[in-house]
Structure formats: C-alpha cells, structure tokens
Specification:
two-stranded antiparallel sheet
C-alpha cells in the first residue's frame, strides 16, 4: 500500500510554489498559502481536517514579524501557513525560516506523538511554540496510531478506512487559484495550473498526503 508518511517534517527547505503580489490586505493571500503549504501548519503539522472549522482555524504567519519589519507585511515570501494556535504563541519571536532551513533537520516526530529536537534550533522551536503541549502530543499519537491501523488493515476495515480518509485526505474546499487575480500578478506565472484544485480537476490528485 503506497501512502505517504502523514506526520513528518520536510527533509529539505520548502520551495516556494506561488508568487502572488499586490493585495492591499495580507489576509487575501490565504488561498495561495493554503495550497502552498498543503493545508497544514508548518510548525505543529496539524491539518485543516483535524479542526472542526477547517481552514478557519488557520492564518498567515509572518516569518519576520510585522513589528520587526513592517515593510514585509504584504510580502508573500515572508508568509507561511500556520494554525492560529502556533501563530498566536509565536507573536514577535524570530525563529528559523522553513523556506531556508529544512525543519526535518531540527525536529523529529516520535511514535509517541512527542517531538524530539535534533539541534539547538529544534529545541528553541519546541520551547517557543510549546510544540510538546500535552494536547498536541495526544493528537499526534492518535493520528500515528490511526495511520498504523490503516497500514495494517487497509481498506478491509471500513471504519478505519473512513477515519483515515477524514484525517489524511485533502480538504473538500480546495482553493481555485486560477479564478483569482492578484493585483500585481503571479511572479511564478502558471503555478495556478499545478494547484491542488487544478490537479483534482484533471484527475491527477491522490487521495491522501
């Protein structure tokens, strides 16, 4: 059975996929960030599917905080996708940029749901964002157990398959980036055609990620 590891940090820095520009309100970039970071928090790895209110539980985080450099408030290259919990805890802290440094070099998700630090930067991330909070650890443990059950029993157990699909499939409301028109265009022109919405329309999108 070929399914991706659903709870792990990237082994390489995140490579920007889109380049929208010109929105007066940085919150208008959110559909692009949802697609860019595959519908999960770059910090704690929680997914939109894991929240009852889906994408409403997520926001745009400024890697360089607004109060540190206000000139970057509407710079797409300064944005990452974050759950509101991690975003509110981070506040004005300066932490490593996942588009420049692979988080997988600094953090590892254990089967227990705990995060292990692989470096000083990893230890600071865990401390600064409280990533080993008891509730986060329990949630990751549950998702890890569900993943193992699915690998063992696959589609032969309908209840497990349904729970797995609810946890690890793509959101139903994939943003249609081709319908959006950033005021100053998209510096990575054509990236809309490789969005998850466009790939689903072409029948190219897998069931899980």
């Amino acid at each position: 059975m070929n399914v991706p590891d659903p709870i792990s940090y990237l082994a390489e820095p995140h490579r920007r996929k889109h380049g929208p520009a010109g929105y007066a309100d940085y919150r208008d970039f959110k559909p692009w960030l949802r697609d860019e970071f595959v519908f999960r928090c770059v910090y704690c790895l929680f997914r939109e599917r894991w929240y009852p209110n889906g994408s409403a539980a997520f926001s745009i985080d400024h890697v360089v905080p607004r109060r540190v450099d206000p000139t970057l408030i509407n710079d797409y290259n300064n944005f990452v996708y974050s759950c509101t919990r991690c975003n509110s805890i981070k506040q004005a802290r300066i932490i490593i940029d996942p588009t420049k440094t692979a988080f997988g070099e600094h953090l590892r998700v254990e089967k227990t749901g705990q995060l292990s630090a692989l470096s000083d930067d990893g230890r600071f991330l865990i401390y600064a964002l409280d990533l080993n909070d008891e509730l986060l650890v329990k949630e990751r443990l549950f998702r890890n157990k569900l993943f193992d059950l699915y690998i063992e029993f696959g589609s032969s157990h309908s209840s497990i398959a349904e729970l797995f699909s609810q946890s690890f499939s793509f959101p139903s409301d994939l943003p249609d980036l081709k319908s959006l028109r950033p005021p100053d265009g998209n510096s990575r022109s054509g990236s809309e055609n490789d969005s998850h919405h466009a790939r689903r329309a072409r029948g190219e999108l897998g069931n899980y990620y």
